[in-house]
Amino acid sequence: MVRPEFAEAPLAELPFGALGGLFKGSLQWAVSHDVSDVVVELADRRATDRLAELGFLPVEGSGTPDGPLTYRLNVSRLVARGFRAGHPFYCYLLEYDESVLVGNSATAVA
To answer: How far apart are CA 48 and CA 110, in angstroms?
Structure first.
């Protein structure tokens, strides 16, 4: 969904790129709707390393050599990591921002 040239390129309203904004919006939606996990399905495997850095884990048994992979992140673990890490990205994630809210199209597991 995010073109490579915009995935991590900083923009005025998205300092960590479109991927960071999408991730922040999904996290805000999950927290505001009391959802425990964020689940993503990757058709393009370019983002696997970045997701792993953020704490996403592959869902066992998901994906085929040509099919999408499914990754899952526990929201509480991410929020706790944000308070421990001094990295600006985690400060960005934990700061509420109406401009990145995700509507009902987000997929989540309760």
So the answer is: 23
Percent of the residues in the chain that have a pLDDT greater than 70, as a whole number: 78
pLDDT on residue 102: 57
Rounded to an integer, what distance in angstroms lies between the CA atom of residue 53 and that of residue 43? Answer: 19
Give the long-range contacts of residues 8-14, CB within 8 A, separation 24 or more.
8/50, 13/99, 14/100
Contacts of 103 by beta carbon, 8 Å cutoff, 6+ apart? none
Q: Residue 21 and residue 63: Cα distance in Å, rounded?
A: 25
C-alpha dihedral over 19, 95, 41, 18, to 10 degrees? -10
